[in-house]
């Protein structure tokens, strides 16, 4: 009963998590309440990371976006949540590069809930653990409650039109950072430079990051820095 009350209080505090530090603290508390070590929220099947609790969560999302594979981008949600209870047992056959990346980070289990309104999914809540094993039924149910609460929050976004946004920092929409703005900008640059569709330009950008062994954001930043002032 105490756990249920704590989760309810956590959800009530979501609206008060305004600045970056408060959002990060809320995400950490949320992860621990779900029996996880970290969580992240992304939109458009992993195409934009908007919220994460720790660096490992962010790196998992970056790896999925770079490689185009992983439970957060491929979950069909025939069951909610999508549970990968042991990344060391069979996940390498489905997501070979991603499984290697996740295991190298010390991650052994991942869980994904849909962020949706009605039947329309527009994002995913992904959590990880360093130990293998499935969620308990209460943890699985609480994760869905959190995902639904986040869906309501994300649907209220408004673009940030103020002048306080630093020119060289991440973009923002309302009170949530957009962490891959530079990736989308670099994709547009490559599309124009190579005369290829945006989808192909993104594939080439991902390939360049993978071959170099560098994060996708750093690879994108290099391309943007090549532009004339």
Structural commentary:
By secondary structure, the chain is an alpha+beta fold. 49% of the residues lie in helices and 17% in strands. It contains 10 helices and 7 strands. The strands form 2 sheets. It has a 5-stranded antiparallel β-sheet with strand order 2-1-5-4-3, with helices on both faces. Helix 8 (181-194) packs across helix 10. The radius of gyration is 18 Å and the shape is globular. The termini are far apart. The model is unreliable at 158-175 (pLDDT under 50).
Overall average residue pLDDT? 81
Our measurement of the CA-to-CA distance between the termini, rounded to an integer number of angstroms, reads 59 Å
* DSSP E strands, number: 7
Instruction: Give the number of helices.
Output: 10
Beta-strand percentage? 15-25%
**Helix proportion of residues, in percent?**
40-55%
Gross morphology: globular
Compute the gyration radius: what is it? 18 Å
Widest sheet: strand ordering: 2-1-5-4-3
**H/E element sequence:** HHEEHHEHHEEHEEHHH
Low-confidence stretches: 158-175
- Class by SSE composition: alpha+beta
Task: Describe the sheet with the most strands.
Answer: 5 strands, antiparallel
